[in-house]
Amino acid sequence: MLAYVIRRLLLMIPTFLGILIINFVVLRLQGPTLVEQMQVSGGMGEGATAGGGDRKVQGAAKDVENYLDRFRRAGNDLPAIINLRGFHDAGDYAGWLRDTIANGRHKDTPSKRNRLEKELWLAGPQAVVPLVAVLADKANVDIHILAAQALTYCAYITLNPRDLSGMPSAELQRIQQRNETLRNNRILHLNTREAGVTVVDPKAAEKRAVLLALFAEPQTQAEYAARAGGALSAMVFNTGFVDFMVKLATLDLYSESRKEYVFTVIADRWSITFWLNTIAILIAWAVSIPLGIHSARRIGTLEDRITTTGLFLAWSMPAMFLGTLLLYHFCTDTAASKAWFPNRGLSSDGALWMPTGAYLLDLLWHAFLPLMVLSYASFTALSRYMRANLLEQLDADYVRTARAKGCSDDTVVYGHASRNSLITMITLGSGLLAELFSGALIVELIFSIPGLGWLMLEAAVERDAPLLMGSTVISVSLLLVGILIADLLYAVADPRIRSRYV
Amino acid sequence: MTEPLLQFDDLHVTFALRERKVEAVKGVSFTVNAGEVVALVGESGSGKSVSAMSCLRLLQEPPATYPSGKILWKGENILQMKAERLRKLRGGEIGMIFQEPMTALNPTWTCGAQVAEALELHTTLDAAGRKARVIELFNQVGIPQPQTRYDQYPHELSGGMRQRICISIALACDPQLLIADEPTTALDVTIQAQILDLIKRMQRERGMAVLFITHDLGVVAEIADRVVLMRHGQVVEQGPVAEVYANPQHPYTKGLLACRPRLGVKRDRLPTVDDFMASEA
Amino acid sequence: MSEQPEPVPPVQPATLQSPASLAWQRFIARGSSRFGLVVMSVIVALGIYAPFISNELALVWWSKDGLSFPAFTDLFNRRSYEKPHDLFFNVAALLLPPLLVAQWFLRQRIRTGRRIAGMFALIIAVGLMCWTPFIPGKNGWTAIWDHRPFVEQNIQTWRELPPESRPLAVFAPVKHRFDATYPGAVLQSPGTHNPLTGGTYWLGTDAGGHDVLTHLFFGARISLTVGLVATGLAFFIGIIIGAVSGYFGGWIDILLQRMVEIMMCFPTFILILTVVAMLDRDIFIIMIVIGLTGWAGVARLVRGEFLSHSVRDYVVAAEALGLPKWRIMFRHIMPNAIAPLIISATFAIAGSVGAESGLAFVGLGDPTTPSWGVLMEQGRQNIRYPWLIYTPGLAIFIIVMTLNLLGNNLREAIDPKNNR
Question: Residue A281 and residue A64: Cα distance in Å, rounded?
Fold first, then answer.
């Protein structure tokens, strides 16, 4: 049995990873670009003039820095799956910088711009040594300014809270000093968009000298090279996905837009979804199995046909229609009458102070309609399957043997046939779980229940990648656990499988 | 003459399907007396299985109807028995075994439990008593290591073993009649012989009647006292085995007997039953 | 004994019956199938001919300047119908009568299977041309489907003219445009009068001021398009992956099966949510995404069928004859696997319609389209306006129910359980 469980778990791991990778890659497809966001938040020296613009430049620079920090802490600067930046040398960077100038940023398609930007501006410690080489090379005079800009961004070291507590203070000081130097020597470059006028920071040459001096020491360059890691290992481990997995494993996922740790946010909500779904499945089973058996025994009668038609109509009814109808008819206060059921949430105000009995009753009152809407769709599928399966079983030879033994009809149906049907029904249960997850979102929205589905919707709309990935991990885990339990139950219940694996 | 145990009296069985009616059995009459082995012989579709299953009313009643005729068990008409009486009949007074041992047992119950269920339905033994009786039955039908087999599931046993289990279910409550619906057709030849021997032995030891359905004339010769031949839902000939084999009256019987391929006889062409039926009007 | 057996005369069946025609007869014999087909045809007809049912422009305008048919010429006006699916349906509206007539007249000449396949191929070709309007000619469709000036021959101008000089005009039954918002007409209840056009909002208006009845008709276009395109895409991918996986086996099978398992375990709603939230809210993207996430079940089905068939004797015989693999797969094995696929497709269309409405309901729909899901979302946001709940809800319910009904009957027809 243990071997069976372990084997199933091992098989699930590639599935789990595959789901995470797909979701991760999709999320990264259209993430906001650093440059656009920086322009939005006033960076890149827009509208800066020589003199009085200095203070504004300082302010803008601080904004950019904050944004860069947040961007990097979220792991968004790293490429999603494979990091090939370590394989690029100074010549490549020079080429890219020249491309940027040649194409003129405003003429580029957004996708080309994004790619260039991500490669160049977010390249991090891997680009520092090549960019210093580009900056130092006198032949690259046309791209010195851009190179210096890129260098200040790439060389800027974003500190995580973990770093702040873990690093020795001497090293911390050195890094902070270097960041300060980089910040102060940020070179301006107005976008060539503005009627062909290029305004350059008058102190450009000075700043370039300062930057070169900063990186002249081989020790500094060695530090950055060490941070970058070898090109091959960086290819796999300096990627967004690995970064995400590490954060997941250490429960360090942080949502920048909500300013909260992801698992804190989820912790409040996932239990509601879990309980709602579990109880809905139980209700669905409790109703459908007897219904299916009853239906199978009375096949062909009027009662059976009415039941089948009713179930068919229930199956075709979209959940959102039924839910909204119920909300309208039973939960809305009109001028004439008070609503029968509450229309939001799972507990009334002041519920926490109610005695246990009243609290449970209140919970039931709130949860009744949502549970109904969650479970009704499964009634049809389950009971129809049970009915078909039971009819199949009743045709089987062993039922004939049982009848020939003298078993009554009830014994045959309940003792023999149903038991065999139930075993195949267990596998249906795991299929239900996946259905429920999508249905839960609609129910949560209609009845304003703060659950995981709604959280995922909000995260998706806000493009909050860590939160969305975190919730995906939780829901996929729940799903896979449910499937595993169903498989285990199936193995335990069916003696033919049990003897193979136990 | 004593009253026959089982008497088919002009039995008609019709299946009422959605589009049409199928007359499976068109007026069958024969008897089975206590302690004798009667073989019911015919091709597929001759109505022999339908007749046998009608004895215990095992056919699904909506498509199957009995427009006329009776099946009398010790004078009582089985076709008109109430549910309660029928239940007692099944397994308690008549036992039945079927053709497919591979699927005849419930895969999710242990073998012992299935046999014990028969005892539970018809006897007043307690759990321990039932278990003891089951082990005894297993010994009688020749199942080795009955204690282990009691807790095993059907899929752990071979076809021959499963058929023995089915036989023990059928014999558990000492029925007076055993109906065997082609019990050896699905088994290997060697196992066939063993099962046949078993049935013969059980019949001798218990003195019960057997209604043996088969299409194999060799088996008939080996096991039966009397033979009833069916074709197209009707009885074409019946009588003691030796007589019928020596002097077949009906062309069909003649054809069946003559068509058996025999070693050492050279022919250009094997005769078929149709050759014989052509002479019939 | 006779010398020789008499030769048995060959049996002449009354009519040659292929499995497909047998199944079709069983299908059409049921009353509920006929009912379902009728309802489906009505919905499709409403969707296709919506511009003629619900339009401000006149169908016929006969003034002293001459006779014109503004509603017809407006069909290719990009200002009025700016989405590709609208173009497709407009073209279909014009092509449908001649197509049906051609089907009728060719029924003796060409076999039914080929006729229907030909019709589908034509529909798909037209569809592709509509979504990529650059194919034929120098400017392709863009020359025809262009922004044209606002058409004067509509109900409002007609009413503004003094009664004596009004030209003879025939108008559509519902005199509203689907993209028009009438000032002050937000969330009007059914039966409210529209002063501008002189018509009534038979089913009220929605939160944007559109006439709900018009949205009902035009929404049918969206639902049908989403259902067909999403299902078509999912089946296309699924069939190829399933066929390759099932027929070739080996490591291809193992690899593809892992992929299928990933897609099946994936709560695809999450994926759809993610993708649609990331990309634009365009109805086309929604369709593609629903299709791209739904192929796993199809692949598994097809793989099962191909696996069980590829070991059968007729396939071995075909291989022995030296037929190329793709031919064996798609001309020999495929027709056997098609039956469960058709059933599955019917349910998949219903599922896609439900998925699109669900997406719109949670707020991820395309608000520029008259989708039924968008109406329902407005119904949820403004809970006191029941016509916004009932109209789209019943519409979606009817379309899903009809498709389910047809699917059930197809299942019974292809796999009859006679003695039940």
Answer: 50
